[in-house]
Amino acid sequence: PALAARVAHYKLQDATKFAPKLPPISTEKITFALPASETTWPRMVMAVTSSGAKDELPQMLVLEQAGPRDQYKVWYDINMLPGVQTPEVASPLVGAIPVRADSLFLKISPKALPTAFGNLIDDGLSSLGAPMFNVSNDEFYKQVAASQAAQKASLKKAKLTVTHALGNDNVLSLATINSGALVAVYLTDTYVIKPKDRTQAVAVTGMEKKLLRAGGSATGIKSVYGTMLLFYVPAINSSDKIITLGATQHLISIKSL
């Protein structure tokens, strides 16, 4: 997912000089480090790093090593959300137990998080999984849900369909002290906008326009956004709720239908 985000952004920079620069991976300060406690490969480590600048958000880097002679590679690069607190974890000298993507010992299995979070974005508190999530303090969820609802409401002569899905099978999770887990996962949001009749067209603006290299399409537009997410998922018997700890979203692709 981190590579997909950079490749897409480089294409955007090639399309327009107005594309913002990607923030560098900062390693000046490491405020959190948690390796996996295992003796086999692949292995992973989670680390929160920053440049120390007050106007920059810390990054959660999730790195994976495929084999004993391979370099660790950045799999997820996630901006930590302001005001969140990382749950208590084991000492980095001990490490944490990796959690399977299909684990049944959590509130929800890690690989099912994108679909459940997508339903929450679509249906809000009426979604089936809403009681599992702490939405009152989740500013990322509020912004994305409000933006999607506003976009649907603004389309009078076109129809918007949004599909949320697991974007990559390599969901990486490490256990917390209280039997919960820190889960890094990739969510893809596919937006399909089609005009309601042949006399209309779909227009795009901003970076979507730059990447499409056109102002719109008479047949419709399909755009894909990828979001690297970090969740705290409590144990199945816990009264705690799922918390969004970090999120980084990128425009991955856009094309005419």
Give keywords.
single chain, 257 residues, alpha+beta, five-stranded antiparallel β-sheet, four-stranded antiparallel β-sheet, 4 helices
What does this structure look like?
With 257 residues, the protein is an alpha+beta fold. It is 19% helix and 34% strand. The protein has four helices and eleven strands, in the order αββββααββββαβββ. The strands form three sheets. Strands 5, 6, 7, 10 and 11 form a five-stranded antiparallel beta sheet that branches. It has a four-stranded antiparallel beta sheet with strand order 1-2-3-4, with no helix packed on it. Strands 8-9 form a two-stranded antiparallel ribbon. The longest helix has 16 residues, at 139-154. It is globular, with a radius of gyration of 19 Å. The model has no long low-confidence stretch (mean pLDDT 93).
